[in-house]
Amino acid sequence: MALPMTSVRSMMLPSTKRPIVLLLEGGHLRAAMAKVLGRANFDVIEVHNSAEALETLEAREDVDVLLADIDAAGAGDGLELSRCVHARWPWLGLVLTSEWVRRLRPDDVPGNGCFLPHPVPTETLLNEVRQAARHQ
Question: What range defines the domain where residue 75 resides?
Fold first, then answer.
């Protein structure tokens, strides 16, 4: 039995879903990063602390990447947030940043996540977020 042409065509076309990035960044960089990500065809959900990030992840199943400043996690440590997120949602892409920390050991970043110290060149940020979205 042959499939209708519309079904075959839809299977061949690339997905038009824009990757969704959950952004936890310090106030002074959050708006700029959200703008850069939006221009690069990402949908961005901005949160202000670890609790909001976890609440958002609990409520939504469509988030592809957590982009989090480990210094902006609020009451919790950003590295602890990333470990918690990876344990609960191991498929979620992780990109961690920091203005104060310059280096992390590879095993400090859970899963296939990456760490980028600020200032992060725009293309580097976008490449890492794209890669994280693909690995999820």
Answer: 25-135
Domain membership flag for residue 101 = yes
pLDDT of residue 7: 39
Residue 66's beta-bridge partner residues? 22, 94
pLDDT at 2 over 50: no
Residue 123 pLDDT more than 70?
A: yes
Q: Residue 52 belongs to a domain with what CATH number?
A: 3.40.50.2300
Number of domains in the chain: 1
Helices (H), 45-95: 50-59, 78-88
Tens of pLDDT, residues 96-111:
999 887 777 778 889 9
* Cα separation of the two ends of the chain: 34
Q: Could you tell me if 102 and 60 are in contact, meaning their C-beta atoms sit under 8 angstroms apart? A: no
d(CA 92, CA 42): 15
